[in-house]
Amino acid sequence: MKTALVVVPSSGLGTAARVAGAVAARLRESVDHLDHHVPTSPEDTDATLRALVDADVDAVVVVGGDGAAHAAVQACAQTNTALAIIPAGTGNDLARALGLPGDPVEAAAVVADALGEGVTRRMDLGRVEDGAWFATVLCAGFDSAVNERVNRMRWPRGRRRYDLAIVAQLALLKPARLVVRTEGETVELRANSVAVGNTPFYGGGIPVCPGADHTDGLFDVTIVGDAARLDLLRILPSVRTGAHVDHAAVTTLRAREVSLAVDGGWIGYADGERIRQLPLDVRCVPGALSVVGAG
Questions:
Q1: Are residues 145 and 249 in the same domain?
Q2: I want to staple 19 with a disulfide (CB 3.0 to 4.6 A). Which of 1, 33, 104, 255 is the partner?
Q3: Boundary-marking domain end, from 73, 97, 119
Q4: 198, part of any domain
Q5: Between 229-239 and 159-170, two packed helices, what is the crossing angle to 10 degrees?
Q6: Do 109 and 177 fall into the same domain?
Q7: Which of the listed residues 119, 149, 171 is the one where a domain comes to its end?
Q8: Which residues pair with 201 in a beta bridge?
Q9: Contact, 180 vs 254, CB < 8 A?
Q10: Both 143 and 52 in a single domain?
Q11: pTM of model > 0.90
Q12: Is 205 found in the same domain as 100?
């Protein structure tokens, strides 16, 4: 396979740069030729990825976090170029959904073996009506406010950053009137948050949409209603296991198309990246991305 390695050195506060050599060495054991690229900015990352896809490389291996993965999804969606993610960021939720080990070198071994055997598979993607793709979860409300706070934080690293942001954001909790329309029903209620999941995880492994399957052509939608702070504090521990969907304040849906509107000025985030203020219309596009993962 014609393979390119793209290392986003700032991912994981430098983790991607530190593991790049070991990842490249492992990949070279399984592929005949490996082009190595180290973009110097987000704009350079986007341009590099699009140039590689335009050059018809068979696979792009990205060493980075969910931001790098999101950029790669934009370039590789609905093309013949397969995407492999080596987790080297803070959240690593796409790599997790693809069944890859959390350790970058171990993940590189899995990817290398799959590339050596020419094994890829298709996964669904979500698409916002203005053309932006997402692979994991689109969220708004409390969840996206936490994302905004996380993106401003420089300490601590990993999951604890999300935990601290959640606690801080609870003090500012303000539910709003949310309208969720799907191809089959309309739900209108006062809510704290909504998550549209193509895969289960966001926020570094939180299964907000625990039943989401990126091969079934459907989103799983999780809505947290107008719960008080104390109720949310009781719900939060169960979010780590996915049991929150059984709480009386939580509504779940499954749909191919979802329209979100709110009277509270919520910001939509997808794959941990800021999209824009609601309203948003999204649809699931089956088999839109070729990926390299475990299993």
A1: yes
A2: 104
A3: 119
A4: yes
A5: 160
A6: no
A7: 119
A8: 207
A9: no
A10: no
A11: yes
A12: no
- Contact status, residue 114 vs residue 293, Cβ threshold 8 Å: yes
The single-letter code of the amino acid at 166 is I
Domain with 35 in it: 2-119
Say if 263 falls within a structural domain: yes
Same domain, 166 and 193: yes
| CB 11 within 8 Å of CB 68 | yes
- pLDDT of the chain along its 295 residues, tens only? 799 999 998 887 788 899 999 999 999 999 988 999 999 999 999 999 999 999 999 999 999 999 999 999 999 999 999 999 999 988 899 999 999 999 999 999 999 999 999 999 999 999 999 789 999 999 999 888 887 787 777 677 666 777 788 778 887 778 999 999 999 999 999 999 999 999 999 988 899 999 999 999 999 999 999 887 788 878 878 988 999 999 999 999 999 999 999 997 899 999 989 999 999 999 999 999 999 987 5
In-domain check, residue 124: no
Domain CATH code at residue 107: 3.40.50.10330
